[in-house]
Amino acid sequence: MKSLITVLRYFVGILFIFSGLVKANDPLGLAYKMQEFFEVWAQSGFLPGFMHALNNFALPFSIIMISFEIIAGVAVIVGWRMRLFSWLLLLLIIFFTFLTGYAYLSGKFRSCGCFGDCIPLTPRGSFVKDIFLTLFILTIFAYRNKIKPPRSAILSAGIIIISTLFSLWLQWHVLRHLPIADCLPFKKGNNIPEQMKIPQGAIPDSTVITFVYQKQGQTIEFTADNFPEDFDDSLYHFVKRYDKLVRKGNADAPIKDFVLNTLSGADTTNALLAAKGYSLLLFIKDDAGRGNWQGTFKKITDITAQKDIPAFIITNDIEDNTPYLKDINNLTWLRCDVVPIKTAARANPTLYLLYNGTIIDKWGFADFVNAAERINKINAR
């Protein structure tokens, strides 16, 4: 039995560490998934005011959860304070199982974000995974008092501290410099217009028109092919009709709802992305605030102006960001919905260099100096 517990400890620990590291590569991705859950619960009528308030704390929650997942995985491998961490692991997997079960049974989520965007799992797959993990952790929990750390307490504590610092540093780093592994449709090398198209051979959603009627106080649903034999307007009272999903397809473009509007409201998406040559895009989500990046960005726009490279600012909040960049004249401001900006700008702000609509390079705000050097070497004329 001791050997089995050891195997389960290593399996669970490695899986938690791996899952945490994948999400630590993109903590904003998990934060946005949390906000998606909060929004669904709010729309369902479950404490809507509280759920909306939690949106503001999604990123801190994400960082804490990711860090704890990595720390818990390391702790269960080294056997450090198993009485404490077996409880914490059990509570964590029960919470994860509830979330994945809700995502699967509600049918309102395409993925649960368990392994981030790099390894997308269906809600069903995530739920099954968590059920097995729950069984493994319950076994570890049952034998928690017999697990002794193979190393000294000081060494084990040192490993935990290093793991904590590393997980926090990694998340701080990617929030400034962009994810190390870019698994999003706006990754370097992708052509944006191509990513906005539905893939060839994609299967559309299969739906059927469904009618909802009331009969003697009971709600009855049926399709046009299976009307009740006793159907009569005197017995059945119409409530509504809707398209019921029969089979979920995959006919979604990787980049959706990416629409760029000028200040006058004109759609300039196709014109910008179809333009020949280089172009510079600065994505800003909400209010980016002041920072060292603005001075470097002004130098970048001076370089692009000399090289006749058009520069654009794409944001969902023009009014609040205009004062920060009022001294830069070589810019075109464009408005975009916040959802595609969230995907494009995992650091706020994020700078893109495009050539014929293809992403040549991209930088988080902490790397704008590198961007200036790269753009200065371009022979755009």
Describe the structure.
The structure is a single chain. The chain is α/β, with parallel strands linked by helices and 381 residues long. The protein folds into 3 domains: 2-177, no CATH class; 206-247, no CATH class; 269-376, Glutaredoxin, CATH 3.40.30. Helices cover 48% and strands 15% of the residues. It has 13 helices and 8 strands. It has helices spanning 2-24, 27-43, 48-54, 58-78, 82-106, 123-142, 153-177, 192-195, 269-274, 293-306, 318-321, 338-344, 368-376; strands at 206-215, 218-223, 237-247, 278-284, 311-315, 332-335, 350-355, 358-364. The strands form 2 sheets. The chain has a 5-stranded mixed beta sheet with strand order 6-5-4-7-8, sandwiched between helices. The longest helix is centred in the first third of the chain and has 25 residues, at 82-106. The mean pLDDT is 87.
Structure at a glance:
By secondary structure, this protein is of the alpha/beta class. Helix content is 48%, strand content 15%.
The strand count comes to 8
What is the first-to-last residue Cα distance? 72 Å
Overall pLDDT confidence: 87
State the secondary-structure class: alpha/beta
- How much strand? 5-15%
Q: Give unreliable regions as ranges.
A: none
Largest sheet: 5 strands, mixed
Fraction of residues in helix: 40-55%
Order of helices and strands: HHHHHHHHEEEHEHEHEHEEH
Query: What overall form do the CA principal axes indicate?
Result: flat
Q: How many structural domains? A: 3
Q: Give the strand order of the largest sheet, numbering strands 1, 2, ... along the chain.
A: 6-5-4-7-8
Count of DSSP helices? Answer: 13
